[in-house]
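TOKENISED FOLD:
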Amino acid sequence: MFGIDYTKKESGPATRGERTGYVLFCLLISFFFLLEIVDDYEPKKLGAVAFLLAWMPLTFLHEFGHAVLARLVGWEVKEFVVGFGRIVKEFHFRGTKVEFRMVPISGYMLPGYTRESWGRLKSALVYFGGPGIELLVFFAIYSIIGFDTFLNSSDDLFEILMQGIALSALTSAVINLIPMSAITDEGETPNDGLGILLSLFGRRG
């Protein structure tokens, strides 16, 4: 997603206690999740682990896709944020403010776009950059393991992990391409799917 900061109310730096609490919470959730896997263990249960663990790096990759497309069409990238909640780490990279926040399951990229020729098409391409790179991950895995393997149950650890990652990438891409908007302090913010449609067919401001 790219646009405005929809988490500004809770975007201050995390305190040491908050970071510690967050780590302990994650460890507790991981412990119970591990217990569920170990209980009546079957290899296919690891697919769910791969699906969930892939979601966090895919969130980074999603926003990275937006940023790469923005750079390719000649726009600057003002902010690159992964996660929501308190800021865990922030720095500047080549003029871009980069933030990693406590819950890394969403994010946004704020471009510095201008009114220009082909602006609508450029905007649509930048919106598509996030889900587009996730679709690339899905099809790359599909080409490695084959579509039949992707759909079938397997006991092979490599295939199970690849299935989980591919499904996570496909799920995220599809969710982001379904046109909808989020309510923020600044009003309604379109997601990637709605942003593509508005960029191409919306009324000019």
The chain has a mean pLDDT of 81.
